């Protein structure tokens, strides 16, 4: 049996990422996948990006990871661009869209927001037809298979649902959770690269971290949109994702 830790939406929050990686290490999980949005919102996108490259076996592109490399006149985005530097921006914009593999007889597809676009936002309360569409493939997918299990990030709201034998889950957010003020990630456990049906588990983990330290980092960095960022970390009330 193989365990894979799946993290997403770190958003430049280094204390949250460190707390999650420490929990993953404590559980002796060696394989970590990241579903995008390494940067943005928080002040430490540069060192978060470096640590993700070091610790994660596979990483996909989020909406922030893509548009942060585009030419812009928006001052908060320019602030993040300058902090990241050209090499990191190039890395972020070149990340793939999906991670796909077989585990315990299930075809599993992981991505940031949807198999069609990193900008398509689908919530747990959307119509069933909309949510079910996440199992289909697109030209952005690696394989033409329709997925049996889908995991994604983007919405900062962890959940799991089942649709006629298929399973949909959202891993939540490490650095900017918007339903509980604790970092969120998922542990997927099963028989990797095995097409024969066997036990498969999806475990949700919430990790407390030092929110006030994250806020202090943002203050010291003189980060733009500071008031909004502090409010989201302390209250889990969403602003703009």
What is the CATH architecture descriptor?
4-Layer Sandwich
Shape label: globular
**Assembly of the depicted chains:** single chain
The helix count comes to 7
- Could you say how many structural domains there are in total? 1
If you had to describe this structure to a student in words, what would you say it looks like?
By secondary structure, this protein is of the alpha/beta class. It has helices spanning 14-26, 45-55, 63-67, 75-93, 128-132, 211-220, 226-235, and strands spanning 2-7, 31-34, 58-59, 98-103, 106-111, 149-152, 159-163, 166-170, 183-190, 201-207. The chain has a single domain, classed as Purple Acid Phosphatase, chain A, domain 2 (4-Layer Sandwich). It has a 5-stranded mixed β-sheet. The radius of gyration is 17 Å and the shape is globular. The mean pLDDT is 96.
Keywords:
single chain, 241 residues, alpha/beta, Purple Acid Phosphatase, chain A, domain 2
Please specify the SSE layout and strand pairing.
Layout (H helix, E strand, L loop, with lengths): L1 E6 L6 H13 L4 E4 L10 H11 L2 E2 L3 H5 L7 H19 L4 E6 L2 E6 L16 H5 L16 E4 L6 E5 L2 E5 L12 E8 L10 E7 L3 H10 L5 H10 L6
Parallel strand pairs: 1-2, 2-3, 5-6, 6-8
Antiparallel strand pairs: 1-9, 4-5, 7-8, 9-10
Summarize the structure.
It contains seven helices and ten strands. It is of the alpha/beta class.
């Amino acid at each position: 049996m193989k365990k894979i830790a799946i993290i997403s939406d770190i958003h430049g929050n280094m204390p949250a990422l460190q707390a999650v990686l420490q929990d993953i290490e404590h559980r002796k999980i060696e394989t970590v996948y990241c579903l995008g949005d390494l940067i943005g919102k928080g002040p430490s996108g540069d060192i978060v990006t470096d640590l993700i490259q070091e610790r994660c076996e596979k990483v996909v592109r989020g909406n922030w990871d893509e548009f942060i490399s585009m030419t812009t006149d928006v001052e908060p985005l320019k602030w993040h661009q300058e902090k990241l530097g050209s090499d990191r921006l190039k890395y972020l914009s070149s990340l793939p869209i999906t991670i796909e593999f077989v585990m315990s007889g299930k075809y599993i597809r992981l991505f940031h927001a949807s198999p069609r676009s990193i900008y398509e936002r689908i919530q747990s309360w959307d119509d069933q037809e909309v949510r079910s569409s996440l199992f289909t493939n697109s030209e952005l997918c690696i394989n033409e298979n329709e997925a049996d299990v889908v995991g994604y990030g983007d919405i900062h709201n962890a959940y799991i649902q089942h649709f006629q034998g298929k399973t949909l889950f959202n891993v939540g957010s490490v650095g900017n959770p918007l339903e509980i003020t604790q970092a969120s990630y998922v542990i997927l456990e099963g028989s990797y690269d095995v097409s024969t049906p066997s036990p498969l588990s999806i475990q949700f983990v919430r990790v407390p971290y030092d929110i006030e330290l994250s806020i202090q980092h943002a203050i010291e960095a003189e980060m733009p949109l500071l008031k909004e960022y502090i409010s989201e970390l302390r209250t889990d009330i969403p602003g703009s994702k």
